[in-house]
Amino acid sequence: MSSAAASESGAPPKTGSQALLEALHERGVEVCFANPGTTEMWLVAALDATPGIRPLLGLHETVCAGAADGYARVARKPACTVREDATRERPFPTTTKKRHFKN
User: Fold this and answer.
1) Which domains does the chain have, with CATH numbers?
2) Whole-prediction pTM
């Protein structure tokens, strides 16, 4: 919804976080495994306010990646993760790559 359309309908404009979570929910995501940092607080706030997606906190990024992978395999539903984006942390992309290509 454009800001012009939002102002015409009286609804506040959507944030990028709200639009992302709405798109994920429309595609069947019901669970989001999260280990957010301070830069992801806008997404966490939107996640808290989004009906239909349940946030689950993990202690580490690799825990969240493994939990999302296990959930998707067992439930046969998509899952997502939210994690702190820090370039100093290398284990997460490696885990994600391995989980993506492993059947």
Assistant:
1) 14-101 (3.40.50.970)
2) 0.69
